């Protein structure tokens, strides 16, 4: 039986672990040079910072995952640096690209563990060099031992904001301030659900306390207004408004922005898995059950690509999906393990709901974005242009949904295919049309999943 | 049953053909209702390559193409927007002597339809387009041709039609058609509609509609494979095709290069279409053979769309032979984007005046009725 696993983050590693344990030799692909995923991204060979320095409180988990990864590589058909740029089912087929060489691989069953990426709300000035996502700010540190600036402002909400801030603090990087857009009150209300996972709660409080103790300015209920600088290619300051409505100008030379993450679901989409809007996560998520099964036979999902759950959930879900695949293939299943995994997954799901309530996506910030803000940075489309395209009296009529808005304005048509701006664009459009985000729809997935370089011409015969 | 909404003319299908017809009819003061299953321009008219060319067309459709060409040039006056139509010229390349001979042979057709074409030899090609690869030996250049943004045309025509009083009903599929007592009765989820005249501009699906009026045609679905690159500096000015087909490309001033060639897959009953990864890779190879500088430029998106193709690769345009008051314009066989504006003008004349200035010889649905007659 030909089994493929896409992704070697926490979900992918644990999925492959179970498949190998059952005697299979899966095809295992990751577009990165090594496994570990974004959360446990490894530095390039030759870099020598300790796991403690790189991963902080997560060092033990990272080390364990890396050990499992390295042990599994020789027992699978391991293909790093390889992009899966298209998928088809019935018969199952993956289109791969590595070093400019395209190949194709058939499969009977596949577990897609494609992870997540940052969810951003564009702020005027966000296209200046020096502005990154929170995830990118963190990867600079983990993979390269670099900070994104010398006086870094971190803005957003969610666990990643505080984690990155703490990691920057520990690494000795200069922090100008940490601005959380969620009001303290909102978090407190939602915290009632959090005791399902006291460890995470404790970690969050620990980070905040440490930052305050180190004298880093921290604000809650903040609203970022603009990232400014004299020349167009520098960052000199962040203008923001505090919860009491006072405006401030914070001097900084780099800004990290992020409001949680969203699933990287293009492959699931191309495989035909139905995608629905999850109002709690405020994300489009592929349809799957607790076991990782989807309505498409032979396609299983695990990890953040299947709906945001975080690294701990990803490890559980990866193992669970592999067990589901084994069961469907008529191979022996570890029923005790399955029961344990499901119990823990259910507990985590309750915690996750509370977390999402504590750190909701700031749809209002996106909706209120000034007209001149560049919304789609690949195609330089402003929020105002998108709003104009929504109006029924434009030269082409109204855009009742996001793909039509894309057709008219080019929003989401660039290199990233809307992966960066899509979430915020939907809010802008929904607010203008006065309907819910779900009704706006989502940008259709189209191959290639990531840019595909045209090869050199074949030598003439 | 609810009382049907009355109109002078009903139009089924809101692609370029149908929206243009609605516009021309409304401007003539007719009460027109267009019924579209999805959004206007959501099928072939909105997903095509965007080529607006006359060069290379079958002689039977050249009169329509020429009329359309005049309308394309006047789009801003007609509908207040140019839909990004630019006359960059269309350059058709030959990669062998046989292909060069094919280009030369078309010169006679062009001359008899007063279509300006220039034949370019190797030296001239190198001088004018130094970025062409060594495989190209000759070309013919049509200076008036060009390209436009397919995502804009049908919606812009529909918007202008609305402003002129047409009713454009989207998300309104026609589920059944009846004809009797000189009137058509169409059923939709939004209720019934009735009119003495009906236009079939339902694209690929126009074949089923014609069949329901006793005029079946051997239509198949066609799903051209399309892709677009990231933006790179603007260097490919003309819209490029090749004799023998297999690859075509154009660059827009903002830098993206749109490349077509080969076919994807599709299911018109859904409707859905998707590009084929193998074809995408093959066509990338063909494109870089023509323009070696494309090596290393990234393709960022691929897609397909559904058009109807007839065996002789030209559409059905003209009155029904079974049902008075019914006029067809469908099955554009992969090259009806350019024709859309004129098709609307022609259908309007047929519906209101019973005749049109534009010769439609060779495009009648009758050609299939004859072919279908048993032999012997
Ligand atoms: C990928 C691709 C590339 C192409 N490239 C070019 C090019 O470069 N140049 C060129 O000239 N041509 C090109 N073509 C061809 C061109 O796009 C089509 O010939 C043209 O758009 C057809 O227009 P239409 O109005 O007949 O059909 P469509 O645009 O398909 O419109 C038909 C409409 O009818 C609607 N409909 C069908 N059934 C019903 C029903 N029962 N009730 C209500 N509505 C219904 C459909 O939803 C659809 O919107 C290409 C086509 C494709 C697919």
TrEMBL record, chain A:
It comes from the Bacteria. InterPro entries: BFD-like_2Fe2S-bd_dom (IPR007419), BFD-like_2Fe2S-bd_dom_sf (IPR041854), FAD/NAD-bd_sf (IPR036188), FAD/NAD-binding_dom (IPR023753), Metab_Enz_Cyan_OpOx_G3PDH (IPR051691), Opine_Oxase_asu/HCN_bsu (IPR017224). Residues 374-430 form the BFD-like [2Fe-2S]-binding domain. Keywords: Oxidoreductase. It holds the Pfam family Fer2_BFD. Transmembrane segments: none annotated. One of its GO terms (molecular function) is oxidoreductase activity. Residues 1-314 form the FAD/NAD(P)-binding domain. This is NADPH-dependent 2,4-dienoyl-CoA reductase, sulfur reductase. It comes from Belnapia rosea.
Automatic annotation (TrEMBL), chain B:
The keyword Glycoprotein does not apply. Residues 8-350 form the FAD dependent oxidoreductase domain. This is Sarcosine oxidase subunit beta. InterPro entries: FAD-dep_OxRdtase, FAD/NAD-bd_sf. Transmembrane segments: none annotated. One of its GO terms (cellular component) is cytoplasm. Pfam families: DAO. It comes from the Bacteria. Keywords: Oxidoreductase. One of its GO terms (molecular function) is oxidoreductase activity.
């Amino acid at each position: 039986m030909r089994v493929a696993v896409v992704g070697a983050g926490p979900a992918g590693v644990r999925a492959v672990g179970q498949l190998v344990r059952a005697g299979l030799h899966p095809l295992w692909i990751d577009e990165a040079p090594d496994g570990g995923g974004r959360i446990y991204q490894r530095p390039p060979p030759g870099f020598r910072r300790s796991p403690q320095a790189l991963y902080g409180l997560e060092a033990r988990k990272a080390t364990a995952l890396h050990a499992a990864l390295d042990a599994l590589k020789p027992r699978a058909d391991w293909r790093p640096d390889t992009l899966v740029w298209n998928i088809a089912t019935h018969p199952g087929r993956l289109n791969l690209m590595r070093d400019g060489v395209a190949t194709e691989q058939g499969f009977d069953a596949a577990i897609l563990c494609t992870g997540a990426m940052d969810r951003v709300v564009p702020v005027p000035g966000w296209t200046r060099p020096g502005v990154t996502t929170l995830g990118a700010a963190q990867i600079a540190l983990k993979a390269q031992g670099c900070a994104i600036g010398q006086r870094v402002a971190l803005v957003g909400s969610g666990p990643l904001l505080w984690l990155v801030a703490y990691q920057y603090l520990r690494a000795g990087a200069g922090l100008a301030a940490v601005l959380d857009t969620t009001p303290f009150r909102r978090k407190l209300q939602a915290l009632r659900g959090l005791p399902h996972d006291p460890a995470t709660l404790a970690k969050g409080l620990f980070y905040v306390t440490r930052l305050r103790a180190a004298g880093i300015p921290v604000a809650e209920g903040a609203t970022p207004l603009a990232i400014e600088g004299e020349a167009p290619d520098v960052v000199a300051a962040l203008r923001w408004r505090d919860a009491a409505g006072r405006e401030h100008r914070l001097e900084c030379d780099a800004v990290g922005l992020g409001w949680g993450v969203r699933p990287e679901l293009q492959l699931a989409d191309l495989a035909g898995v139905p995608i629905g809007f999850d109002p709690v996560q405020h994300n489009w998520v592929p349809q799957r059950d607790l076991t990782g099964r989807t309505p498409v036979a032979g396609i299983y999902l695990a990890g953040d690509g299947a709906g945001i759950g975080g690294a701990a959930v990803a490890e559980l879900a990866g193992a669970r999906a592999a067990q589901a695949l084994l069961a469907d293939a008529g191979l022996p299943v570890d029923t005790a393990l399955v029961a344990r995994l499901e119990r823990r997954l259910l507990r985590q799901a309750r915690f996750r709901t509370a977390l999402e309530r504590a750190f909701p996506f700031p749809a209002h910030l996106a909706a209120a974005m000034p007209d001149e803000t560049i919304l789609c940075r690949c195609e330089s489309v402003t929020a105002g242009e998108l709003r104009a395209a929504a109006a029924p009296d434009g030269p082409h009529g109204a855009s009742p949904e996001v793909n039509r808005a894309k057709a008219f304005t080019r929003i989401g048509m660039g290199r990233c295919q809307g992966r960066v701006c899509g979430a915020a664009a939907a809010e802008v459009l929904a607010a203008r049309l006065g309907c819910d985000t779900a009704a706006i729809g989502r940008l259709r997935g189209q191959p290639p999943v990531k840019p595909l370089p045209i090869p050199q011409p074949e030598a003439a015969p | 049953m609810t009382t049907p909404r009355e109109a002078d003319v009903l139009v089924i299908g809101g692609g370029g053909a149908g929206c243009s017809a609605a516009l021309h009819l409304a401007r003539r003061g007719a009460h027109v209702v267009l019924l579209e299953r999805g959004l206007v321009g959501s099928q072939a008219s909105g997903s095509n390559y965007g080529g607006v060319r006359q060069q290379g067309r079958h002689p039977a459709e050249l009169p329509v193409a020429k009329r359309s060409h005049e309308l394309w040039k006047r789009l801003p006056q007609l509908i207040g927007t140019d839909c990004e139509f630019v006359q960059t010229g269309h350059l058709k390349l030959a990669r062998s002597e046989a292909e060069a001979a094919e280009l030369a042979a078309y010169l006679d057709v062009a001359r008899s339809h007063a279509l300006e074409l220039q034949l370019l030899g190797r030296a001239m090609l190198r001088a004018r387009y130094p970025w062409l690869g060594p495989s190209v030996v000759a070309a013919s250049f049509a200076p008036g041709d060009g390209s436009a943004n397919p995502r804009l045309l049908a919606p812009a025509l529909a918007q202008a039609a609305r402003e002129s009083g047409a009713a454009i009903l989207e998300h309104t599929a026609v589920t059944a058609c009846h004809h009797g007592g000189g009137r058509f009765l169409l059923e939709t989820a939004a209720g019934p509609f009735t009119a003495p005249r009906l236009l079939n501009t339902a694209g690929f699906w126009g074949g089923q509609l014609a069949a329901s009026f006793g005029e079946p045609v051997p239509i198949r679905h066609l799903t051209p494979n399309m892709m677009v690159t990231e933006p790179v500096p603007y260097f490919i000015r003309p819209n490029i095709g090749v004799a023998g087909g297999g690859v075509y490309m154009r660059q827009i001033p903002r830098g993206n290069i749109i490349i077509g060639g080969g076919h994807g897959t599709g299911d018109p009953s859904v409707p859905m279409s998707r590009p084929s990864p193998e074809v995408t890779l093959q066509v990338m190879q063909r494109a870089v053979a023509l323009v070696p500088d494309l090596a290393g430029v990234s393709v960022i998106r691929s897609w397909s769309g559904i058009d109807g193709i007839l065996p002789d690769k030209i559409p059905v345009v003209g009155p029904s032979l079974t049902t008075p008051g019914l006029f067809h314009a469908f099955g554009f066989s992969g090259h009806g984007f350019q024709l859309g504006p004129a098709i609307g003008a022609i259908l309007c004349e047929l519906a209101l005046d019973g005749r049109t200035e534009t010769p439609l010889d060779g495009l009648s649905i009758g050609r299939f009725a004859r072919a279908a007659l048993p032999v012997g």
